[in-house]
Amino acid sequence: MKNTKLPNLISILVLTLLTAVTWISFGIYRAFTTKPAPVVKKEVSEPLNPTLDKDVINSLGNRLFLNDQNN
Fold first, then answer.
1. In the prediction, which pLDDT does 31 show?
2. What is the tally of structural domains in the chain?
């Protein structure tokens, strides 16, 4: 009785083809299901002003902070 196994090269080629088809299928699926990047407003993307407002910084020390203490 002869052994009718596929040669190793054909097995590797079939597995490679299946892997490539699966990879491409998941890539296409991901391309259709991925949400587009959100649009950023121009005001948000503008650079910040590097100068500090000294009045605001000085007023931070005058604020009253209440601690939540469980007694």
1. 93
2. 1
1 CB burial (10 A radius; 0-12, 13-18, 19+): exposed
Q: Is residue 68 part of a domain?
A: no
Residue numbers of the domain that contains 48: 8-60
User: Residue 2 — pLDDT band, cuts 50, 70, 90?
Assistant: low
Collect all residues with Cβ–Cβ distance below 8 Å to 12 and sequence separation of at least 6. none
How far is Cα 24 from Cα 18, in angstroms, rounded to an integer?
Answer: 10
pTM: predicted TM-score of the whole model, two decimal places: 0.47
Q: Which of 22, 19, 14, 20 is nearest to 5 (CA)?
A: 14
**Is 69 inside any structural domain?**
no
